[in-house]
Design a protein that fits this description.
The complex is a heterodimer of chains A (113) and B (110).
Chain A (H helix, E strand, L loop, with lengths): L4 E3 L2 E4 L5 E6 L6 E7 L5 E8 L14 E5 L5 E5 L8 E8 L7 E2 L3 E5 L1
Parallel strand pairs in A: 2-10
Antiparallel strand pairs in A: 1-3, 3-7, 4-5, 4-8, 6-7, 8-9, 8-10
Chain B lengths: L3 E4 L2 E5 L4 E7 L4 E9 L5 E8 L4 E4 L2 E6 L4 E6 L8 E9 L4 E2 L3 E6 L1
Parallel strand pairs in B: 2-11
Antiparallel strand pairs in B: 1-3, 3-8, 4-5, 4-9, 6-7, 7-8, 9-10, 9-11
The chains are: A mainly beta (113), B mainly beta (110).
Chain lengths: 113, 110
């Protein structure tokens, strides 16, 4: 596709449920990032994938959060047993590599009720 | 640990003014610095990318400079327009993935 695509654009879930957020990066981009942006806050790094290297998971806030990237392309961020504090916009970005321009998707707005 | 600071946090200017947004970072070992724009409820739009070996980049009315040794970057916007109203974010890439500042919220008043 022409840009980074994220789905769904909005997700409302009940506390305690699991959710999956999807990111389709730009074709050919080997680097993929996930960030979280809470209301009125800056971007919080979650996880980074680069090619076939082990992902940098240093930003994941708890073991309820996990992410995978299948075939070096599509990535899924999974949040288990969601809590109200997980409510935020989850943003995905991709780039040709660490030293290249990063492009962001429109984000998934997650609301936990 | 890399930290990125943006000053001011918010800025309001009349249409037509030239303005400067500031970004500073603590670790000068960076690959590049990128400026983004974020409109309310939207994702981030890339404005300019400056590689660590470069001093500045220009795109239309935007000019970004980089002084890696002092850990500073500026985004200059010429002849501001109401459509420039948005939050501007800078981010650095280095040994850690993109680290963001908290942004400057710009309002251009017609």
């Amino acid at each position: 596709g022409a840009g980074v695509s994220q789905s769904p654009s909005n997700k409302v879930t009940e506390k305690g449920k699991d959710v999956e957020l999807r990111c389709d990066p730009i074709s050919g981009h080997t680097a993929l990032y996930w960030y979280r942006q809470s209301l009125g806050q800056g971007l919080e790094f979650l996880i980074y994938f680069q090619g076939n290297s082990a992902p940098d998971k240093s930003g994941l806030p708890s073991d309820r959060f996990s992410a995978e990237r299948t075939g070096g392309s599509v990535s899924t961020l999974t949040i288990q047993r969601t809590q109200q504090e997980d409510s935020a916009v989850y943003l995905c970005a991709s780039s040709l590599g660490t030293r290249s321009e990063a492009f962001f998707g429109q984000g998934t707005r997650l609301t936990v009720v | 640990k890399q930290e990125v600071t943006q000053i001011p946090a918010a800025l309001s200017v009349p249409e037509g003014e030239n303005l400067v947004l500031n970004c500073s970072f603590t670790d000068s070992a960076i690959y590049n610095l990128q400026w983004f724009r974020q409109d309310p409820g939207k994702g981030l739009t890339s404005l300019l990318l400056i590689q660590s070996s470069q001093r500045e980049q220009t795109s239309g009315r935007l000019n970004a400079s980089l002084d890696k040794s002092s850990g500073r970057s500026t985004l200059y916007i010429a002849a501001s327009q109401p459509g420039d109203s948005a939050t501007y974010l800078c981010a650095v890439s280095g040994n850690t993935p993109l680290v963001f500042g908290k942004g400057t919220r710009l309002s251009v008043i017609a």
